[in-house]
Amino acid sequence: MTMSRVTPDKLHKAEEIASCLQDMGYSINFARNVLFGVCGVTGNSWENLIAAASGTPPSHLPELNDVFQQILIVGAKIFFLYELDSTQSKKIEKFLKSAKSEDSIFLASYPFLTNDQDLATAPRTNQIISKLTYEVKGSTLMTMQFCAKATYRKTHEVGLNELTDDARSRYDEGEVESIKITSKLNTQLFNSVVFNKNKGYLLLGADTSELSSAADQVGALARLKSDFKKLSGVSLPTPKNLFPKIEELYQKKTGRILKVEFITPSDSVNSLAIKQGDRDVRNDSYHKAGELEVDALEKFKIQKAWDYIFSEHTRMISPTITLNGNKKCLHNADPLREFSVKDCPTLAYLTNILEDAFF
Length: 359
Fold this sequence. Notes:
By secondary structure, the protein is of the alpha+beta class. Helices cover about 35% and strands about 30% of the residues. Strand 4 and strand 5 form a beta hairpin. It is globular. The two termini are about 25 Å apart.
């Protein structure tokens, strides 16, 4: 591995990692599965989980730090997938070997978040932070971590009693109990590049852990693509069209289908998501009957999960892939270039689900 920011004498505490996962927007369920899987600690709230993590034995910290660094690379991302020829692969490998990290606000705090004051003046362009190389399933994975600032909007409801006197006076008392406020916020993105040297594919991934809007996610990915081209000087091919994989993902028996959207024979849009207690949409009796009635439903969105036993403590972890197509992909043959990954803790799991889903 090269340029790792985590060395044996600089291992980060488990409670620091747990707190950072909370601040980054990861779910407590994901963080709990990771911490229990690696360290054997758990908690029913963030406060309890962070407190429990503080008792982690030092012997668990090297593995936890390694997993945390991989979460920053693959944990919650929207990706472009590129299939490269030999010339493009050589250029990408050369760039990844020679590129240097940049002295920036982000580097000073990495692998943790920078403070709000520094983030306000941080650049929106992607800054190279670190490089790591992994051996996974017989393949060499060269990775690069970027950081960048992004802005997003968040709407929340507040009661009138939380407003200032001047703001509250604008509303007729008794008729309005609460209002919705939209705030413009800054966030730090941990974007990444993953190059499979042996199989010749490249992933560009934008961090979605705090970006819930599809437009914000796609915008962050587009900026990463532009910045990577400027830095590397490599003209990449068009990202792989993944829309034809939706039906294949549905039919393939591995994994579980969490959600599917489709067009019925009457050209109406319908969707199914797993219900409480269910594990796979394909087991829904109503849906199965409908599929038997009509030869095939035209699917344009799908979310699929794969279940793995995570580490020695047997906590289950379930990374997901989402292909978020639309009706235009069906009727106009529009391509679908992006796919999303969520709750993925390591490059090994990402490699497994990519090979099952797309190769």
